[in-house]
């Protein structure tokens, strides 16, 4: 579904990514982890075209993003993204947050968009909050709305960039529960997260990054039981309870 091939990226003179290669197959859940500043957010932003890159290529279903074979507007219709800070529209109700892009981008009519929005709110356990504004919800609830909003576009892939790291501890599990359910339903997911319990439970593969490089890619069990590099071992010692 997604192939990252020898990608390098510079911000000005600073090289943020160096020769990174990874792939995410249909229905796979891949967790990206590594120390702060290792390039995880940068890499995930390249996948839906929020940043450009100078070398290498990223293919979505075999089509090149770098060459323009896959247009960014088209790409973003198929890829949902959930950020650390939710990024909901503050002036719109929860339900409007879920219907606006369905109507404006996908051309669904208001009734259809509302029906889909309400069904998704129910799915994330927020059907009673449809007419509130985001500021009236807890962080965990806002993040569940953000996930529902992404799903309203029927994405083929979901990207998550540390979706629980801005949340109070007691709200982390309600968001992870939604993500686990999505994974178990077969969604293709690329998740930047330090929630190693989530990784152990649903990830097919773990990609470990450090200093702009992909240090190792392992199947999940191997990553936790026998990481190949000292850097991954050090990292695991810090993040595992
Ligand atoms: P991570 O998500 O793993 O914490 P990032 O991808 O955010 O790491 O950042 C990787 C490196 O790129 C960091 O050194 C960061 O300071 C740098 N960086 C990120 N965004 C920018 C930017 N817009 N301009 C310049 N440098 C950036
Ligand atoms: Mg980041």
Give descriptors for this structure:
241 residues; alpha/beta; 6-stranded mixed β-sheet; 4-stranded antiparallel β-sheet; 9 helices; 10 strands; 38% helix; binds magnesium ion
How many β-strands, per DSSP? Answer: 10
Cross-sheet strand order for the largest sheet: 6-7-8-3-9-10
**Bound ions, cofactors and other small molecules, one mention each:** adenosine-5'-diphosphate, magnesium ion
What summary fits the major beta sheet? Answer: 6 strands, mixed
What is the alpha-carbon Rg in Å?
Answer: 18 Å
Query: In percent terms, what proportion of residues is strand?
Result: 25-35%
Secondary-structure class: alpha/beta
Mean pLDDT: 95
Low-confidence stretches: none
What is the string of helix and strand elements? EEEHEEHEHHHEHEHEEHH
Estimated helix fraction: 25-40%
Distance between the termini: 33 Å
Helical segment tally?
9
Gross morphology is globular
Structure write-up:
The protein has 241 residues and is of the alpha/beta class. The protein has helices spanning 40-47, 72-78, 94-104, 110-123, 139-151, 169-184, 196-202, 220-225, 230-239, and strands spanning 2-11, 14-24, 29-33, 55-60, 63-64, 79-82, 157-161, 188-192, 205-210, 213-219. It has nine helices and ten strands. Helix 6 (169-184) links the parallel strand 7 (157-161) and strand 8 (188-192). The longest helix is centred in the last third of the chain and has 16 residues, at 169-184. It is globular. Bound molecules: adenosine-5'-diphosphate and magnesium ion (MG). The site of adenosine-5'-diphosphate has 10 residues, from strand 2 and helix 1.
